[in-house]
Design a protein that fits this description.
about 35% helix, single chain, binds iron/sulfur cluster, alpha/beta, 6 strands, TIM Barrel, 9 helices
Length: about 250
């Protein structure tokens, strides 16, 4: 497979991020879901969340953390029902593992809707990341700089970035991906529908296989070189061409 550290990379299998929507009220240039450059409104279905909860309970799955993110999650029209579904897992977790789940909610807090939602989160959400307009655009490292454009990619020595180990895999409206960035790259550029549909089918090999398609286009791959977070959009040839093909002006 060529991945450097399989034991560490396995961390992606016990941490999960829900990208419940790609809809957002902001358009940060280096958004790591590419919501700024490729605005889109793909909402996860309630049945996908229900499927996640059912499978997690059936598999007695221990999730180290669950992140509720996007896009701006408060824009999902069924966010209350999503919370209700997740509560089923949280109650199961408490009973099975005698502990509270770590459930974190990510919001840009930049609209009345987002602010109202933040004031009324269910109790089981025990952590919040609240980035307001001032810093939302500077939180991310450039995404649209493809390692293959700068000769910084060798498929035989795939070296996924820390995102994979720290945040874990992602469930979006299509299914499961190894990381949120891979999901966004497939959604906006590759369009290969690489998502694994069912949680029970997710394994180390099929997640790494997806990374072999996506890391080569992801600016976060430059992590070892210390890429800085930036407000300015940085973009390399492959992405420029894609924007041109899509007739997107930036
Ligand atoms: S607020 Fe977050 S999700 Fe929205 S465009 Fe900015 S970085 Fe992306
Ligand atoms: S380099 Fe990009 S696609 Fe690869 S693991 Fe990191 S965030 Fe995911």
């Amino acid at each position: 497979m060529g991945i450097v550290n399989p034991s560490r990379a396995a961390r992606m299998l016990n941490r999960i991020v829900f990208d419940v929507t790609y809809n957002c009220t902001l358009d940060c240039p280096n958004c790591n879901r590419l919501c700024g450059v490729f605005p889109r409104k793909n909402d996860i279905s309630l049945s996908k969340i229900k499927g996640f909860v059912d499978s997690s309970i059936e598999m007695k799955k221990y999730w180290v953390h669950i992140f509720i993110a996007g896009g701006e999650p408060s824009l999902h029209p069924e966010i209350d029902s999503i919370f209700k579904e997740l509560k089923r897992y949280v109650l199961f977790f408490k009973k099975e593992f005698k502990a509270n789940s770590i459930v974190k909610y990510f919001t840009n807090n930049h609209s009345k809707k987002a602010q109202d939602r933040l004031k009324n989160l269910p109790d089981f959400i025990n952590m919040v990341s609240n980035s307001d307009k001032k810093n939302a655009g500077t939180r991310f490292k450039p995404m649209l700089v493809a390692p293959i454009d700068l000769n910084f990619y060798d498929d035989n020595h795939l070296m996924p970035c820390q995102e994979l180990y720290n945040c874990g895999m992602t469930l979006n409206y299509k299914g499961y991906y190894p990381c949120a960035e891979a999901a966004a790259i497939d959604d906006t550029f590759l369009k290969k529908d690489m998502a694994i549909e069912k949680l029970a089918d997710v394994n180390f090999n099929n997640m790494v296989e997806i990374l072999h398609h996506t890391c080569r286009y992801c600016g976060h791959y430059f992590e070892p070189l210390g890429f800085k977070r930036s407000e300015k959009l940085m973009i390399s040839q492959t992405w420029k061409q894609h924007l041109k093909n899509m007739q997107i002006r930036i």
